[in-house]
Amino acid sequence: MGIAEIVGLVLLAVAVLLVLLAYRRVRLVRAGGIDVALRTRQVSEGRGWHLGVARYQGDQFAWYRASSLRSGPDRVLHREQLVVLERRDPTLPESYAVPPGSVVLRCRMAGGELELAMGLGTLTGFLSWLESAPPGRGMPRVS
Known about the structure:
Blueprint: H1 3-30, E1 34-39, E2 50-57, E3 60-65, E4 75-78, E5 83-88, H2 92-95, E6 102-109, E7 112-119, H3 120-131
Antiparallel strand pairs: 1-2, 1-7, 2-3, 3-4, 5-6, 6-7
């Protein structure tokens, strides 16, 4: 097998991978997914963000990383464990790594802290979902 055939096979494999990623994203968005960036560690200003698509599944917020081919979610946030600590605009370096027009939420959950970045329309829906807890469960205001 020559160099040209090997290069061709590599390019074909990359093309197939890109088509699979695009198909997965379209399938998630059509099933009610929303664009959300997630960061679990603050490495430095503007770094550490991962783009993805999230879906509401009852009391869970399932997040699927855009560059992953996993069939299940990469991260599941449970409503009863999630508390919004801070709401802010993205810094200039962050604005290149998060969806356009995003607001950044610093959140605490059982496993530690993380940050979510989402557009204003998505933020309204997320906060409504978070505050619509079952009866008997108190929720702090996060406006």
